[in-house]
Design goal:
This protein is α+β, with helices and mostly antiparallel strands and 205 residues long. 31% of the residues lie in helices and 33% in strands. Component of the proteasome complex.
Amino acid sequence: MSIFEYNGAAIVAMAGKECIAIGSDLRFGVQFQTLATDYKKVYKIHDKLYIGLAGLGTDAQTMYQKLKFRHNLYKLREERNIKPSTFGELVSSMLYEKRFGPFFVSPVIAGLDDKDNEPFICGMDTIGAIETAKDFMVAGTAPDSLYGMCESMWQPDMGPEQLFETVSQCLLSGMDRDALSGWGAVVYVITKEETVARTLKGRMD
């Protein structure tokens, strides 16, 4: 079993019209043994920027603490929040720095630009090779089923409610086909006015 499959995860980020959504499953397990059903894998950096970290749970938490620290330093120096695209480069350089003893995480970054509320989505591998997307990005142990659902359900210029419904259906459907993720999900919908978090009930097996 790959170290990336040790704890299991399913993460989806999707872009809409001046809004963005990111969600993850809630299962925390050791291989096929479930230990907790309230473990969120999406972390807040600031009001318009979230990061999902799939992979090894301990590395994900360490990575988030380091990123939060770096963002606080940036905020003190620049007196503003970091842009999503700049944050993507920061995460990439942090991962590449550790390429010979890497963090076993697959980040998915989702945010809105402060100036024009343009959605930004990117993902990367363990050593920080960035891939940006205009539609959606997935990570975790169920990428094949998640890609299939997202490709068939994503539409351009979706509003916040339609975006939430689409991400929710993609997540729940993808998780049902993966034994290492599941037990419900949490979805964050980020608009220029607010961020709404909703918890979904999924199959509890």
